[in-house]
């Protein structure tokens, strides 16, 4: 009977110890990656943006024991969306959980002055190649209390700027 009780633990242990060729361990350089994460971590708090469609609240919060930053766009509304920022080797990745129902996965490889440019790597749950999705987002750090988000959308291969959100820290 004890053997039967231990069986699930043994199976789980073996699964965790097994190697998967799809997993890649990368060597990360903190001097390259820390500034990327720190730039977004500095946004922690409540922000208000002006968008082409009016004002919107953004909340940036640290989560997962300080290893991820969650941005909630329009919290508590029917248009709520989430962006998750995490380190990925020497880059910073962002998954945009879009109101369109798909999840563009983007990566920024470095700060370019005051700009952090995220480019789409893949799009999860894209049901049709002509479906709308976010193809890029650039964060521009204007000041400690003013940030811009430049969103680019893609529909059927056509790229267009969706708009610029002017975020101001809500003090």
Describe what you observe in this structure.
By secondary structure, this protein is an alpha+beta fold. It has helices at 2-17, 30-41, and strands at 45-51, 54-63, 68-73, 81-88, 91-97, 103-108, 111-112, 115-124, 133-143, 146-155, 158-169. It has a ten-stranded antiparallel barrel. The radius of gyration is 19 Å and the shape is globular. Mean pLDDT is 88; it is low at 2-16.
What's a quick, concise take on this entry?
The protein has 171 residues and is of the alpha+beta class. The chain has two helices and eleven strands. The protein has a ten-stranded antiparallel barrel with strand order 1-2-3-4-5-6-8-9-10-11.
Key traits:
single chain, 171 residues, alpha+beta, Lipocalin, 2 helices, 16% helix, 52% strand, disordered N terminus
Largest sheet: 10 strands, antiparallel, barrel
- Distance separating the two termini: 62 Å
Radius of gyration: 19 Å
Query: Based on DSSP secondary structure assignment, what is the total number of beta strands?
Result: 11
What string, H for helix and E for strand, traces the elements in order?
HHEEEEEEEEEEE
Helices, by number, come to: 2
Structural domain count: 1
CATH architecture: Beta Barrel
> What would you give as the CATH superfamily?
Calycin beta-barrel core domain
Question: Level of helix content?
Answer: 10-25%
CATH class division: Mainly Beta
- Return residue spans where pLDDT drops below 50 for at least 5 consecutive residues: 2-16
Mean pLDDT: 88
The CATH topology annotation reads as Lipocalin
How much strand content do the residues show?
over 45%
> Strands across the major sheet, in which order?
1-2-3-4-5-6-8-9-10-11
The secondary-structure class comes to alpha+beta
Rough shape?
globular
């Amino acid at each position: 009977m004890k053997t039967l009780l231990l069986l699930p633990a043994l199976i789980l242990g073996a699964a965790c110890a097994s190697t998967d060729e799809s997993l890649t361990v990368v060597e990360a350089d903190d001097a390259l990656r820390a500034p990327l994460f720190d730039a977004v971590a500095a946004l922690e708090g409540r922000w208000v943006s002006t968008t082409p469609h009016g004002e919107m609240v953004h909340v940036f919060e640290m989560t997962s024991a300080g290893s991820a930053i969650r941005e909630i766009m329009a919290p508590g509304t029917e248009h709520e969306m989430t962006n998750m920022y995490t380190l990925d080797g020497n880059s910073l990745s962002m998954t945009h959980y879009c109101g369109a129902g798909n999840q563009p996965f983007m990566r920024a490889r470095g700060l370019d002055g005051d700009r952090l440019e995220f480019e789409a790597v893949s799009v999860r749950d894209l049901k049709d190649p002509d479906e709308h999705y976010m193809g890029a987002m650039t964060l521009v750090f204007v000041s400690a209390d003013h940030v811009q988000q430049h969103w680019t959308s893609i529909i059927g291969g056509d790229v267009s700027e969706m708009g610029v959100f002017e975020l101001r820290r809500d003090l």
